[in-house]
Design brief:
single chain; alpha+beta; Helix Hairpins; Heat Shock Protein 90; five-stranded mixed sheet; four-stranded antiparallel sheet; 9 helices; rod-shaped
Length: 449
Amino acid sequence: MKHLIPDSLAARTLVVLILGLAISHAISLALYATDRTDTLISIDGRHIGERIATIDRLTRNSTPSERQRLVNLASDANFKVSKSSASAIETQPQMPDRTSKMQSSLASHLDNDPGREIRLRYMNMKSEKLGNVGEQEVKTLMISISQQPQDWLNFAVTLQPANPFWSFRYSLSMLVMLSAVAFFSAIFVRQLTQPLKQFARASQQLGVDVAAPPLPEKGPLEIRLATQAFNQMQRRIRRFVEDRTQMIAAISHDLGTPIARMRLRAEFVDDAEQQQKMLADLEHMEKMVFSALSFARDDTAREPMAKVDFRTMLHRVCDDISDAGFQVSLSIKEETMACNCRPVAMRRALNNLVENAARYGGEARVAVAKQDGGIVVTIDDDGPGIPQDRHEDVFKPFYRLETSRSRETGGTGLGMTVARSTIRAHGGDIKLSNRDEGGLRMKISLPMV
């Protein structure tokens, strides 16, 4: 049952509107059909009564020779008149409500005669179909009126049946109403829910780009209030991130001066071994400060987005790392892969990931393919891998796996952090897993244009 309920707000609103109006329209048509039947009975009774009363007066006031001629002239295909010495209706059956209404309407048009007897009966009679071969059953009203004790005037009136409730006319009315309601409701609901779709897209974009432009504040009051709150939240988050990033940049910049002074003072240390250790520590600190400063600058100075061929970018990254003396192989099946990204930042992130695999895993085997409407890059190496409980730790700033690298390698522990931040800023993600045959696998997923 749940899968029959539409998932979107627009579809649910449209279904509720259409069902509600369809039910109300069906009830209105049912009431209309009932009232119409009663109205037809009243109109038919008045019309038939007037005609019968006229024929009755003419035949009663005419000579016997003229009566038959008047009867013949008054008859037609749907209104047949005859005279007989006995009633065409042997006995008056129990009258249903409709028959009693018709009899009352008929009696009101006839001359007031206390001894007059009026008999009515509805009968189903066979009649030839118009324009078709065969017969059809029609409703016929049989009426017998006594004029004298042995003189009866008989009428057989073919009644036009009222259209059934689910006739073509009523069905067409329902179809026209539902079509009109669906059309105008769809336009109204679409305009009503469009700001919600923009709100959802902006919420997703906020996780990718905190500096995205604010939402236009339009639509109903509730939507405008929600949009205002969202824009205010985005401004606060942007100010928070900018303040923290600028603080990191300022601290990193200010640390450069004391490090330089400590380097000068280390030159005056007499113990050569201690001097070399101090200079090595200062060099490592300087690299960490420089990495932090570069990271902060990259975050504060946003590179504009551009549409690039991801194949070409990854090919150049692998070629550069291979030229640096590392073993790298690349496998690409698709001819083109369009990606909307910040080219410099994306290339730096890919370079960090591929170089890490090649440096600490012996060889980096890179494969890229289209999958589920996006781009998936797989980087395998032959290294010792990373324990499962430390997969998330490698993305922490300045975190280093001492078993796989040393200070002499030059790593500061920001490469993986910068790479994942860049990938996530483009709407993607990185997952690590240990291969069964040994080594580490990095799986990077990115959206494709």
